[in-house]
Design goal:
Length: about 325
């Protein structure tokens, strides 16, 4: 005889939980959140049919009592089942309080192309949206100030971007070292805004050399995650017989780092040229360590261990 009352009590708890979520999320919540607090898909359908809830995206709902606002649309974009995503670009700049930004029109960066939220927001795709590029602002996952500034470099001219960057630095919203480290993760030929952000960083951080390729960017990330210092990039080859640059160098330890790309690593002429470069370096007491794209992507720990041993030996 106690089951109906118990069931009613349970559903009241579910309703209170959903209202609590809605209060925190501008009236918006997801199917997965509803299921987690004990409701069922059948129960969800009844709420939708009654008009108590409004479906605003696949698996995302809003309490009808809440208005459709910029914040509710921001919540919808990050609650939709898109995989890792974050509010980014102009919307992130506004949430961070960056100079000249006031718009909360939804903009989101996702890792995967099947976002299903194009009707809600401007959607950018990035395979290099890393966990450490995301922070939380007002409960929302948002790209960090550093990542946001780098994304904005693809949208604005130098004059405006310099104002935004310098204001963020002066206010303490970001540090140059953090901005440079995040740029190390993203810089690559062909990525829009890379050249402009490189100019801005090199003007404000004397001695900074940005990655020239995706391979160099990945190398820096592997070394940083492995706890190794950042090498000097695009270092002149130490042999007077070689008029070119190496990908990276630990100068005081006389260690050179070269990254062999996926396309030309097996070409015989290039391999012979690499041998000549390595032998020339050895003649002036520099050691060369070569790694492939596969090394960086499939066994980064081994790359780190090889260079750590080399640094210890040279110390």
């Amino acid at each position: 005889m106690s089951h109906p009352a118990s069931c009613l009590c349970d559903m009241n708890d579910v309703i209170r939980s959903i209202i609590g979520l809605a209060q925190l999320q501008a009236g918006v919540f997801s199917r997965s959140q509803v299921l987690e607090v004990g409701a069922s898909d059948r129960w969800i359908h009844r709420r939708l049919a009654s008009g108590e809830w409004v479906q605003i995206a696949e698996g995302v709902y809003r309490l009808a009592a809440y208005p459709d606002t910029a914040m509710s649309r921001l919540w919808a974009t990050v609650l939709a089942p898109t995989g890792l995503s974050a509010i980014s670009h102009e919307a992130a700049a506004t949430l961070h309080g960056l100079a000249t930004f006031r718009s909360l029109e939804p903009v989101v960066t996702v890792r995967h192309s099947r976002s299903r939220i194009e009707h809600l927001a401007t959607v950018h795709q990035s395979r290099r949206l890393y966990d450490e590029h995301i922070t939380t602002v007002r409960g929302l996952p948002v790209t960090t100030v550093a990542r946001t500034l780098i994304d904005l470099a693809a949208l604005f001219r130098r004059a405006r971007l310099e104002v935004i960057v310098d204001d963020a630095l002066a206010s303490g919203n970001v540090k140059l070292a953090e901005l440079a480290s995040t740029f190390d993760d993203l810089a690559a030929r062909g990525r829009k805004g890379t050249r402009l952000m490189r100019i801005i960083l090199e003007a404000r951080l004397p001695g900074y050399v940005a990655p020239q390729s995706r391979a160099e960017s990945l190398m820096l990330r592997v070394l940083r995650e492995g706890g190794l210092p950042r090498p000097v990039l695009q270092f002149p080859h130490p042999s007077p017989m070689i008029d070119s640059y190496v990908d990276g160098a630990y100068v005081s330890e006389q260690i050179l780092i070269e990254i062999d790309s996926r396309r030309w690593h097996t070409q015989m002429a290039r391999i012979e040229n690499d041998k000549e470069r390595d032998q020339a370096a050895n003649l002036v007491d520099w050691d060369t360590y070569r790694f492939t794209w596969r090394d960086l992507t499939q066994r980064p720990g081994w790359v780190v261990s090889q260079l750590r041993k080399a640094l210890r030996k040279a110390a």
